[in-house]
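Minutes, project check-in
Item: structure for the 397-residue chain
Input as provided by the requester:
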Amino acid sequence: MISDRERLTQLVPRTLLRLAAWSLCLIIIGWAVFYFAQFIATLHIVVLPVAVALLLTALLFPVTRWLRNRGMRPIYATWITILIALAVLGGIGWFIGLRANDEFPRLVEQVRATAKTIENWLYTGPLHLQPNQITAWIDEVTKQVTAQRNQITQTVLTGATVALEVLASIVLLLFVTFFLLKDGDRIWSWFLQAFGGAAPRVDRAGRAAWVTLSHYVQGTVAVAAVHGVIMGVVLAGMGVPLWAPLAVLIFLASFIPIVGIFFAGAVATLVTLGAKGPIYALIFLGILVVEQQLENHVLQPLIVGRALKFHPLAIILVLAVGGIVAGIAGAAVAVPVAAVIYRALPELRGHQRALPPAPGPVPEGPPGPVPEGAPGPVAEPPEPDEPVNEKSPQPRE
């Protein structure tokens, strides 16, 4: 007799059956990913501060570890680290506010003078525009702003709600960062208890992910600092007002690959255009492009690229997905999340992968130093069906 399976194979080609099975699996996976993304988006006020706290912990942990290695208690080392970070941020904010207060009036005067020069060029230049044409354009812009007054008011009210959410997120971020610096080892040990026999692989994956995250954060901060300092010196040398806030904006925008520098560079170029005219704006734009190319082809590969080994196309696609899912915040954390997953998955499968050496003091364990006397990472026993060979080479990347 012909079985049901053979009868089904006779009716439907085997290739089509395999495609149907794969399609069903992809539909189920896509459904699960979609609802998981919806769940994360619902909890964005919690998920985003925790993600940023992990990045800050990776950046600040070397200071905490150095203090603890000098015999300081964990609670005191953590408090000193947090206070140092707040002092640095406060000093930068005070310096920016001082410079902005002194230079903003001069910027307004320079913008007015530049606007007058451009207006005269439009009248007497090759375009030969008439004054009534420019007046008509200004009147049209005024009408559009008046027509959208209600929408602008609604946006301001929505901005007040967003400000409250941001304040709550900052408080949560500080709490999570503090406890990750202080009790990161205990949190990780407690987390591993939920995996039972799979704990050794999860432990290896977590440690590989932490090393990768530390490489990314410290390398990105170093590259962004060099970028901000160089552009700040260029702006100050040109005599552009608000050069300090613009340098900080370029530094912060460097954390969003590709997209951030376009935004910060456009703002700095517009300010230079309004303050110093088109010639200085073109000079600044040229220096910005050259410096950005040097950063992408020299600094990034030397400092960050060795740890991530991501192709530029992969970075662009990851940024696009992160931006679509969570906007600017998603684009900011998309690359480190993808790098962490890329490095952790082989460890979950049991494949040992060699990690590159750290560019600086990077923790070799989970987010938090292991106290003296604490057990190290759990060693996974060999598989029963595989012979143990101590001299077998490790698989290469």
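Outcome recorded: The chain has eleven helices and no strands.
No further action items on this chain.
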